[in-house]
Write a structure and sequence with these properties.
Strand content: 15-25%
Number of strands: 9
Number of helices: 6
Distance between the termini: 71 Å
Helix content: 10-25%
Radius of gyration: 27 Å
Shape: elongated
């Protein structure tokens, strides 16, 4: 029985007012707050509700739902883990990059030389800034369609169209979001290199002279 049931039938206004102010409202709150069940129109609002830091409107709906789920700690892939709590960790950066189709290939972290007293000895990469993590990130880019290529140069009408660098911008944004605020990083997306004789490439037709292989080191 509700408050409206206690009113006489002629009291139409009072009955409507009681029903409007009752707590028993037909709103599926549980469904709306569920990133996997909420209507697609609610996704941007739910992303704002859970303070999603990385979001692009042209993402597929499934990717948007998974980003919200991981931000809310309701992911079925990583249950019980909130993405924001992983910021500043290698795992967190890996998760953020996965949302923009990028992956970490190699990391050189804090290349400081071993210190004895105040004198530094040992080795660090040449021209690498200290206390900065350097990443090699794999991020495939789409080459211009129907372009005849010579080495790395494309000729023809397709060569007039520049490569879309939006994936690189998104990967950099994902890395900025995923790192700790007080840390620094540098990144290279040159994850392919020319084949050399030292690679001992099998002569089975899978590679050719002047071709490329994936880099595994910085």
């Amino acid at each position: 029985m509700t408050a409206a049931d206690l009113l006489p039938d002629p009291a139409a206004f009072e009955r409507a007012l009681a029903e409007a102010t009752a707590d028993d409202l037909p709103v599926p709150i549980d469904q709306i707050l569920d990133p996997y069940e909420t209507p697609s129109a609610f996704l941007p609002f739910l992303a704002a509700h859970w303070s999603v830091d990385l979001w692009f409107d042209d993402w597929a709906e499934a990717r948007k739902r998974e980003m919200i789920a991981q931000s809310a700690g309701r992911s079925t892939i990583h249950p019980g883990e909130r993405l924001a709590e992983l910021k500043g960790t290698r795992e967190g950066l890996k998760r953020f990059l996965a949302f923009v189709d990028a992956e970490i290939v190699r990391v050189v972290s804090h290349p400081c030389r071993f210190v004895v007293g105040r004198s530094g000895v040992g080795w660090r990469p040449i021209a690498h800034p200290p206390l900065t993590a350097h990443y090699l990130v794999k991020l495939p880019l789409q080459q211009p369609a129907h372009a005849f290529e010579i080495n790395r140069a494309a000729i023809g009408r397709a060569s007039l169209r520049s490569v879309d660098l939006e994936p690189i911008r998104r990967a950099k944004l994902a890395m900025t979001v995923g790192k700790a605020p007080e840390t620094l990083y540098s990144v290279t997306f040159a994850w392919r290199r020319h084949i050399t004789l030292s690679d001992s490439i099998p002569l089975d037709g899978s590679h050719h002279i002047g071709g490329f292989v994936d880099r595994t080191r910085l």
